[in-house]
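Methods — Computational structure assignment.
A single polypeptide chain was analysed. Its primary sequence is given first, followed by the predicted tertiary structure written as structure tokens.
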Amino acid sequence: ITGTIQNDILKEYAARGTYIYPPKPSMRIVTDIFEWCSHELPKWNTISISGYHIREAGSTAVQEIAFTLSNGKAYVKAALEKGLDINVFGKRLSFFFNAHNNLFEEVAKFRAARRMWAKMMKELGATDPKAMMLRFHSQTGGSTLTAQQPLNNISRVTIQTLAAVLGGTQSLHTNGYDEALSLPTEEAARIALRTQQVVAFESGAPDTVDPLGGSYFIESLTNEVETAAWKLIEKIDAMGGSVNAIEEGFIQNEIARSAYEHQRKVETNEKIIVGVNKFQVQDEVPIPGFKIDDSIRTLQAEKLKRLRDNRDRAKVDQLLQQLNDKAMSGENLMPIVIEAVENKITLGEIADELRSVFGEYK
């Protein structure tokens, strides 16, 4: 079986906020998955280390790769402490980056990130070139989409798509033009797909590896981005790594400062957002948004109730106690979690049981 799990908890503390447990037990869960998959699912990509959410929270391009690679370094060190082979698990690490508006800066960012990760993995002990490769998925920048004149977002997504392709992305998600208003309609999703297909089959951009390599401007900008990113990583290393930097609030504060500065520039017209602070249209005609049938929520609640009513309660209680015991003991949690799911124990129940051991991060 092949596939990918996101499994990146550090970006939750730094950017998105959907964490439950404190950082250290959360890192234990991440490395438990590394360990289990190395034996049971060797072709599974055990983490997708995400810069996307960091950028969406307001970071700069430099901060995106610096914080993401620092998080990656923390995961590698945690796996090494667990006794895992970097040349084995290193091949299964993947990344997830944002494709933003500044075409050349984004290309330089992707190029710099590849060089930096290879150097970082080599310094951490990797000897297999495949374990030093930075394989990444990218998604066009949702935070760049505007509710005003939403059809302009088609142009934004196209530029971002081209940046990702020229930067060497392995896979790509293109956003719908109406996502500042709602979930994408079928038309918006189709245009997003066609944007990828036009770039793939008509532009010639994917025909060669690193097509902008050798350009004085791109090479200089790549070096500039890399140098600035290393400086940030050195600061984080001096704090003891990403976990400590997050617990001290350093990464969150840096992102917040950049987000504030961006918004200040928009509101003072130092930075032009077409249709928002310049080239506005009066009496804009609204576009129809996607509407969700709320009956889906009721149906799912009923389905969950039926599942809970038709299971062995004694077995459920027994397995939840075993989960609690193994969480306390430090054993790998994957086997008991899988057994719990096979016996119809819900994700919420598993999370609550672990919460009783690990606590909740405030």
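Note: The chain has two domains: 3-267, 295-358.
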